[in-house]
Write a sequence for this structure.
């Protein structure tokens, strides 16, 4: 890792760290943003990372023990968390994070290969502007917006998959 200090910004190049059992590499810059928010700009890569791992910083982890127990009882991980979103996280950061993962794990046995994510952090809102990759024999394109709401968060999105019909004929 190489550390850079530039005025009010701290940068880390050639970053290599473990997050939730996953190795992340790349570069990240942290600085002061508007209205006292911290700004994060990052370009990261991973061999494999799970959606649950990516969502964990947004969750109110006071309820995580119940979710872990439920996963053990069901004998599998649950792709979408039961924990509520933490409202304070939505206002803490602004910036952009680009992530490239060889495999984005949606749930046990379901992955997006060659996943590229572009995440934009704004006050009160997190937009995953794009998730591109391949799954189920076709190209996948997803966009998701998670916005702070009185009851936790409002989630909106689009999902598209392009499949060749002749590829399905043998299935």
């Amino acid at each position: 890792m190489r550390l850079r200090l530039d005025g009010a910004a701290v940068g880390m190049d050639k970053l290599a760290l473990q997050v939730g059992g996953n190795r992340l590499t790349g570069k990240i810059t942290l600085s002061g943003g508007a209205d006292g928010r911290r700004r994060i700009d990052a370009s990261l890569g991973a061999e494999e990372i799970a959606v649950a791992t990516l969502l964990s910083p947004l969750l109110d982890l006071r309820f995580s023990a119940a979710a872990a127990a439920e996963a053990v009882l069901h004998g599998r991980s649950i792709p979408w968390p039961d924990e509520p979103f933490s409202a304070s996280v939505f206002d803490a950061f602004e910036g952009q994070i680009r992530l490239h993962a060889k495999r984005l794990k949606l749930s046990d046995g379901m992955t997006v290969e060659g996943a590229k994510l572009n995440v934009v952090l704004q006050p009160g809102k997190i937009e995953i502007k794009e998730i591109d990759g391949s799954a189920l024999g076709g190209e996948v394109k997803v966009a998701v917006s998670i916005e702070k709401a009185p009851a936790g968060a409002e989630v909106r999105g689009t999902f598209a998959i392009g499949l060749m019909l002749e590829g399905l004929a043998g299935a």
The chain has a mean pLDDT of 80.
